[in-house]
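Lab channel / #folding
Pinned by the channel admin:
"Please post every new chain as: sequence first, then the C-alpha cells as a reply. Keep commentary short and put observations after the output so the thread stays searchable."

First post following the new format, from NK:
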Amino acid sequence: MIQGILTPSSLGVTITGFTTGDFSVTASGTVSGTRYRHMHDGSQIMALKSTIVNSSTIDNQLLYWNMDGSASAAYPCGQRNIIDICADPSTHKYYALRYTPTSSGVTSQSLSIEEINAHGEQQRVVISRLMAIDPTLPNFTFPRIATDGTNLYIATLSGTYKYLTSDNITSDETGINAQVYTPTVFSGTGPLMYLGGATPYLTYITHDGTVSGTQDIDSWVATVHCIDKDTLSETSRKLFFKGGDKTLNKSYFWNSLGYTTLYRLDSTTLYGVYTNNDLASFCSLNLDKQIMPTGSNSLVGVKAIVENPWGEKLDGKTINFSISGAAKGSVQNAQMVTGANGNPTGIATTSYTVGQTEGIDTVTAQIVETV
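Reply from TO:
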C-alpha cells in the first residue's frame, strides 16, 4: 500500500458572509458560541447556524449559498434548540436533532429528532424523547446526526444508534427501538456524514498530525474514517489529506452529487478534496536493481503501482514510462496498462535496458487523470 496525503484544491470560490465556528465548553461545563453545520443540498450549500443564548436555549437560522459563493437565502427559525442537522438530497428532507432541557413536569433533559422543511419548520416528529444520552448535557459539542434517506444515524456520548426515518416514536426512547446500537463513540472533528456511492459509508474526520509516524511539515493531517452503515462498526478504509492552517475553524461536507468530492471551508474559502474511487491519485515506481554495469545490456524490471485516494489499487490506468539522464538507457515498453498483460491488480510493468554510457538515468512513470 502506497497511500499518501492528498492536497485540497482551491475551487476559486469565496462564500459571501460565511463564517465557521463551533460551540466551546469550559472546564466547568459552560457552553457558549455559535456552531455552523454545512451540507451540500444538491445544488446549494446549506448551513444550520446555532447560537447559544443561555444554558437551556439555542437560537437557530438556516442559511443558503449558491455554488458560486453568493448568498441565496436566510430563514430565522427562532429559539428551537437545534444542535445538528442532516439532509437527504434526493428528497430534500431535513432532519433536526433538538435539545430539550429539564423543565417543569420533565424529570431529565433529552434529545428529540424531527423532520423539518427547508425553512426549518417542523413537519413531523420522528423520536419525541431520545433518552439514551450522556447525563453531562448541556455539552452540545458531541451529539450528531446523519441520514442515507432511509435510516437515521445518531452518535451520542454513550454510543451510536440507527433508526428508520419513517419512525414515529412517542414514548421515552432508551434505545430499545433502534435497529442497530453500538456503544462505540466515534470521536472526531465536525459532523457525522453520509458518504453515498456504490459502497456507501458513514464518515467522520479526525485531525491526527501524523500518518505512519511521518510529520507533515506544511499542515496538519486530517483523516476521513469510514463506518459500516449497516453494523455501525468502523472499517479500515481511510483517506488522508492536508488539513490546512491549524488556527482556522473549518467545516467539512460531501458533494451530494456523486459523493466524489469532500468540501472543506476555511474561513470564506472553499476547497475540494477529490475522492473518486476511480481516480488515480498515487503512483509508486520500483526497480529490481538500481546499480548495473555500463554496456552490459542488462534488463531491469520496472514496476508502477497505482492507487485511488483511499489506497485501493486501480486497473485500466495507462502508464507512460520514460528515461532521462546521461547513461542513455531505454525502456522496453514505453506505455503499459495496470492490471493488463498478466500484471497483478493495480500494477504495470516494463523493463529498463542499461545504456552504453556511464552515468545516471532516471526512470519516470506518468499517469494523467482529469478531475
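NK: Residues 135-139 have pLDDT under 50 and may be disordered.
TO: also worth noting, The CA atoms of residues 257 and 308 lie 19 Å apart.
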